[in-house]
Amino acid sequence: MRVALQVTCVNDAMFPDTGKAVVRLLRRLGVDVDFPRAQTCCGQPMVNTGYLDEAVPVVRTFVDAFAGYDAIVTPSGSCAGSARHQHAIVAERSGDRALAAAVAETAPKTYELSEFLVDVLGVTDVGAYFPHRVTYHPTCHSLRMLGVGERPQRLLEAVRGITLVDLPEATECCGFGGTFALKNADTSVAMGADKARHVRDTGAEVLVAGDNSCLMHIGGMLSRQRAGVRVMHLAEILASTAESESHSSGPAVGERAGGPAT
């Protein structure tokens, strides 16, 4: 199986350890994963803001970069959702039949990380070890657009040493929403404050999610509140082992997530 990592813009620019964790995890599970260097943005920021025509060359770059792979894995429900659902809208609007045909090839092969692990590889126990109290936030696109359901929780429950606690009002949006946080800052901050309060109520040491954009937003608030809760991407916990835990206790909140517009 030829598998490619679509690392996402925010991870490439701000959270490279997440992409590295995906590679370590997949290789540990026997997957030979490639990183196509021609990849850029998935186009979601443009589509979400209404610039569908401007997204055409970005979608074209995506399908060209990932052509020929059996699976495209991304540590982001947002970007997986864009590739699976928005790319077809952009291609159809453009009237480019070749682009539409290419999208029809790449879209169904694009998986959010937990989907790939559970549905394609058929594993829930990935051999991880993470002896900390953790709570999980299901991000909006993974929950509503992709329907990942309980896959992330099943993966976390199989992690040795972990104490997984439920997050109150877990399915409520954190308020980030990409450009929403900039265009509707007051509403975004209020939503984020609710989410941060619920995280603190769990007594968790670590907040985990499948999208670093959401973790950046919530983590920024937790950092400003000096809550003592660090945020980590799902991939980083699943890639953790007893050996890695013995060498590092993990980054502090302020080092892991800064949080814009909060």
UniProtKB/TrEMBL annotation:
<dbReference type="GO" id="GO:0005829">
    <property type="term" value="C:cytosol"/>
</dbReference>
<dbReference type="InterPro" id="IPR004017">
    <property type="entry name" value="Cys_rich_dom"/>
</dbReference>
<feature type="domain" description="Cysteine-rich">
    <location>
        <begin position="134"/>
        <end position="218"/>
    </location>
</feature>
<feature type="region of interest" description="Disordered">
    <location>
        <begin position="240"/>
        <end position="262"/>
    </location>
</feature>
<dbReference type="Pfam" id="PF02754">
    <property type="entry name" value="CCG"/>
</dbReference>
<protein>
    <submittedName>
        <fullName>(Fe-S)-binding protein</fullName>
    </submittedName>
</protein>
<feature type="domain" description="Cysteine-rich">
    <location>
        <begin position="3"/>
        <end position="80"/>
    </location>
</feature>
<dbReference type="GO" id="GO:0016491">
    <property type="term" value="F:oxidoreductase activity"/>
</dbReference>
